[in-house]
Model the fold of this input.
Amino acid sequence: MQRPGTIGLERKMVYRTRTYIAADWDGDRDVVEQLHKWNDSNYWGLSFPDAHDLQQSRDSSLPCSIKSSLKKRMDGSKRFVLIVGDATDTVTKGSCQYCGSYDSGTSSCDRLHSIDYRSYIKYECDKAVEAGIDIVVLYNSARVTRSKCPLKVRFEGNHVPMKCWKDGVLKWDYDAVKKALQ
Done:
């Protein structure tokens, strides 16, 4: 029997089981690919379900459509992993001002959508903090340089370098990444 006022309403349960990976794809693609390589290989022992399997979006979509897809992925995530490289805090891709539907004369959207000047990365960082999920920041270097990290997560979560010097050569630090993601 339904309670009065709940006819036709269903409660939607969100189960957070995924790991959400955010990065400057143009600058840090190799890092994301390495993380997926470790995750996909039984040899490495790193295993996490990727949130990007939940909802797909195309680069040709409007920023607001892509951000809607990103939010759906975040809603199913228990962990947010941000890859920080040299340009992460300065990336602007995803800001409405670079969308073809943005009218700079009126600072409005020709499609009547709300305006969001945040990049995809800053949007993802904001959503991760709002969701209260675990935050892991992995640096595409041998040291943590928080000034390259978006302010919203600069002092949140666990910050770990993904590389280390071994025998005079800069190499991936799998053990540090695995420990950070456990």
Residues 57 and 66 are 6 Å apart (CA to CA). The first helix runs from residue 25 to 40.
